[in-house]
Design brief:
The chain is of the alpha+beta class and about 575 residues long. Among the domains are: about 325 residues, 4-Layer Sandwich (Deoxyribonuclease I, Chain A); about 60 residues, no CATH class. About 30% of the residues lie in helices and about 15% in strands. It is built from 18 helices and 18 strands. Strands 4-5-6-7-11-8 form a six-stranded mixed beta sheet. It has a three-stranded antiparallel beta sheet with strand order 1-3-2, with no helix packed on it. Strands 16-17-18 form a three-stranded antiparallel beta sheet. Helix 3 runs parallel beside helix 6 and helix 10 packs across helix 11. The chain is globular, with a radius of gyration of 38 Å. The protein starts with 8 loop residues before the first helix and ends with a helix.
Length: about 575
């Protein structure tokens, strides 16, 4: 699928063939979001962005307007993030929220809570483990907040669906290195799968699922219990997707009573464009309950959508943002009234509110509209601008006429001679030797007062060059000297040519030590002293058991069909070639 073949973002969403679409890692801001992304014609949209750091995190939910309209919607998990004016009690999704303060956990734009009647959807992007103690604590607190919010909803009798990037594996088979972690743990004296479950957030994830004593069902795994390598995320920087060397960290989790509604659930690894792939579920149009009652999905999912009647979405939808309710700047540049005289040249006064001007700049579509509108401005304003330009020219000329009158002789000079007058001295004037100048040449008259009317000596540079060519310093060498010089020059040229050939020659490609195959060159992009330097590593893709080095991989765990641990700086490869004889 080539995403650039679609003309609009609305077309992209339609191509996904879903009524409810959830995104994570939007990596944008409200101000930087294009209008076609925030307001696609066929969908209602909801967003949560970081309140401090921009271009980071962020989640979005799109609902197809002709199929489903949410009942309620909130930003964040804690209930502390509120729009202006604040949500009323009837607009809130829950009556009860986690009891302790968690607003700082909601400031990174990581969750949206949407009430669809049949269930409450939580679209979330859980924090990644960056290796620092501070972020590790933040990650665990966020997972705890998510679990507490789900518990509050279940306590209120609601069914819950949690979707998104949870940044944690739920089973050993969900990790490309899972079995190796278990084997390494056993070698270190650990029991069973302790080598894999030693990370706290994995344990919490396992305990949250029904199989581990929790309340949530991993619906995709339930449909595919024995499927191996069912990964949803890959490190594309090391080419891991080509060999399916990844992890399953993207989930659809349900409370048990929603399971009968699910007709299909799977991943879509064939959909490219990200380091993650989509995960989907398909719901039945209707189900038969245990008492024989038939329940239609359209009757219990969202607000009622009838023919020609589509209710408004909840108030935090993007269509209600202030920047989407105000007039565009182009609306202020309307055509003049027909009753106005066409001969009027007075420039009309334009008054624009501060809000309108700011939003017009922030909105790309509004900016383009204002430009096109300004081009179609009434012609009455054009003469005023022309008059202003002419007035400036007249004022400039007036200043020139106020200068003292020139001498009659200078006024009689031809226009052609005036055109030749230079504004600066010639190069010859700075380099010529006074004693070498011809004595017959009279001094050039100079008008100090005005600087106008000087005669131009067009041959000055030519005469200087002729003089220099006739001086002793520039005398041509004798034939014998020329022959010796030519020999030395040729030898020097050959040496220089060899040096440049070595410098400009492509870096020789070394062979990797594990497979004796040509290595592949990469460039360091990480900030630091080595940024920009080039290096070679094994050209084979990574895979389970690829050689990470002796410090990270036991030798008996190395699978030679994948990348070996070969590494060499490109500069070292060039030095090795230079040391070889004949090079």
């Amino acid at each position: 699928m080539e995403w650039n073949t679609f003309k609009t973002f609305d077309d992209i969403l339609k191509n996904l063939e879903a009524e409810i679409i959830c995104f994570q890692e939007m990596k944008s801001s409200r101000q930087g979001l294009p209008k076609q992304v925030s307001l696609p014609p066929s969908f209602d949209s909801f967003f949560s962005f970081p309140t401090r750091k921009t271009g980071y995190s962020g989640v979005a939910v799109y609902t197809r307007r002709d199929a489903v309209v949410p009942v309620k919607a909130e930003e964040g998990l804690s209930g502390l993030l509120q729009p202006r004016p604040r949500l009323s009690m009837t607009e809130r999704v829950s009556e009860e929220y986690p009891s302790f303060e968690h607003k700082e956990l909601d400031e990174e734009g990581r969750a949206l809570v949407i009430d669809f009647g049949l269930f409450v959807l939580i679209n979330t992007y859980c924090p990644n483990n960056t290796g620092t103690e501070e972020r590790e604590k933040f990650k665990m607190e966020y997972h705890r907040l998510l679990e507490d919010r789900v518990a509050c909803l279940i306590k209120e009798g609601r069914e819950v669906m949690v979707v998104g990037d949870l940044n944690a594996c739920a089973a050993v088979q969900d990790h490309c290195e899972g079995e190796l972690m278990v084997a390494r743990g056993l070698a270190e004296g650990l029991q069973g799968e302790e080598g894999f479950w030693g990370v706290e957030y994995r344990r919490r994830m396992k305990d949250w699922l029904v199989g581990g004593g929790g309340c949530m069902v991993d619906i995709v795994r339930q449909f595919w219990p024995d499927r191996q390598e069912m990964y949803t995320c890959w490190n594309t920087k090391i080419g891991a997707r080509a060999s399916n060397y990844g992890t399953r960290i993207d989930f659809v989790l349900l409370t048990p009573k929603l399971v009968p509604w699910v007709k299909a659930a799977d991943i879509q690894p064939q959909v490219k464009g990200s380091d993650h792939c989509p995960v989907f579920i398909d719901l039945h149009d209707e189900i038969t309950q245990s008492d024989g009652t038939i329940v239609k999905l359209s009757d219990v999912l969202g607000l009622a959508v009838g023919e020609g009647k589509v209710p408004d979405p909840p108030r935090i939808a993007a269509k209600f943002w202030d920047e989407h309710k105000q007039n565009l700047l182009s609306s202020f540049f309307g055509k003049s009234s027909k009753s106005e005289s066409p001969s009027t040249t007075q420039t009309p006064t334009l008054t624009v509110s501060a809000n309108a001007s700011v939003h017009a700049v922030a909105n790309p579509s509004a900016g383009s509209s204002s430009q096109s509108a300004s081009k179609s401005a009434p012609p009455a304003s054009q003469p005023a601008r022309t008059d202003l330009k002419r007035k400036l020219v007249v004022d400039s000329n007036d200043k020139i006429t106020k200068k003292p009158n020139l001498a009659p002789l200078k006024q009689e000079k031809s226009k052609s001679s005036k055109a030749k007058q230079p504004s600066q001295s010639t190069l010859a004037g700075f380099l010529a030797k006074p004693k070498a100048l011809p004595s017959k040449s009279p001094p050039v008259p100079v008008d100090v007062d005005t600087g106008i009317g000087n005669e131009v000596d067009e041959d000055a540079d030519y005469r200087l060059a002729l003089l220099l060519s006739q001086s002793d310093d520039n005398t041509l060498p004798s034939s014998s000297q020329g022959s010796t010089s030519s020999t030395r020059t040729k030898k020097a040229d050959d040496e220089t040519k060899n040096v440049w050939s070595n410098l400009l020659a492509p870096t020789p490609v070394p062979m990797c030590t594990g497979h004796d195959e040509p290595a592949k060159e990469f460039t360091v992009n990480k900030p630091g002293p080595n940024k920009g330097k080039k290096f070679f590593i094994c050209s084979r893709p990574v895979g389970p058991g690829y050689d990470k080095g002796r410090s990270e991989r036991l030798r008996e765990q190395v699978d030679p069909q994948w990348r070996c641990d070969f590494f060499k700086w490109s500069s070292d490869a060039r030095k090795e070639r230079a040391r070889k004889p004949g090079l």
